[in-house]
Every structure is written in structure tokens, then in C-alpha cells.
Amino acid sequence: MNWDQIEGRWKQLTGDVKKQWGRLTDDDVDTIDGQQDKLVGKIQEAYGIQREEADRQVREWFNRL
To answer: Is the pTM of this model over 0.90?
Structure first.
């Protein structure tokens, strides 16, 4: 799977995203719309972590799909 596929399946993956990162709101998830940079940024903002850590979490989640 690649990010183009994630963008295409974003509506189906939102439940998994919210389970993984519970602090993200429905509005956050809608705004992200499957875009990797937006997902990393929203995680960084919601959890107060470094961008590198948020990026690592997204990569780990992506690899589990």
C-alpha cells in the first residue's frame, strides 16, 4: 500500500486513525483527508511531540496496514 491508496481509502481508515491517535477530533481527521504531512502535523499538535516522533508513529502505523 502507498499513500495514494491511503488517500483513496481515507474514509475507511478514519476509525483506525482515531483508535491509534485518540486525541484527534473528527474535524482533524476530516481536515487531514489522507495527506501524510497533515496527519503528522495534527499528531504533533495534539500530542505536543517533535515532528520526527510524529513522523515515526505515522510510519509505524502505515507499515501495519
So the answer is: yes
